[in-house]
Amino acid sequence: MIRVVDAICGAGKTTWVFDHIRNNPDKRWLFVSPYLSEVGDGKTKGRIQLELPYLDFKAPGTSSLSKSSHLRKV
Fold first, then answer.
1. Which residues of the chain have pLDDT under 70?
2. Organism's domain of life (predicted)?
């Protein structure tokens, strides 16, 4: 299933997603965000790695690939 969460800034979208993932750790997750601060950049951890460290989320690398190219590769 794919769920797109869309709302205005500050509405709690990311918090809701992280709570949903936290409450369903047995499922497999792909969290896509246009913001490196949320997903990390391969050198620094993003919000998802900091809030859900036990789920071992991967971040896009710092290669010459764009974020969208890296997503297709994943």
1. 61-63, 74
2. Bacteria
Tokens found for residue 6:
């869309």
Looking at the domain assignment, is residue 60 inside a domain?
yes
User: What 8-state DSSP symbol labels residue 73?
Assistant: H
Residue 36: enclosing H or E segment and its boundaries?
helix 36-39
Enclosing domain of residue 51: 35-74
What whole-number distance in Å separates Cα of residue 67 and Cα of residue 37? 13
Split into its structural domains, the chain has a count of 1
Asked if residue 49 belongs to a domain, the reply is yes
Q: Which two tokens stand for residue 65?
A: 């690939």
pLDDT of residue 2: 85
In this predicted model, what pLDDT tens digit does every residue of 35-56 receive, in sequence order?
888 888 878 899 999 999 999 8
CA 29, 21, 7, 42 torsion-angle sign: negative
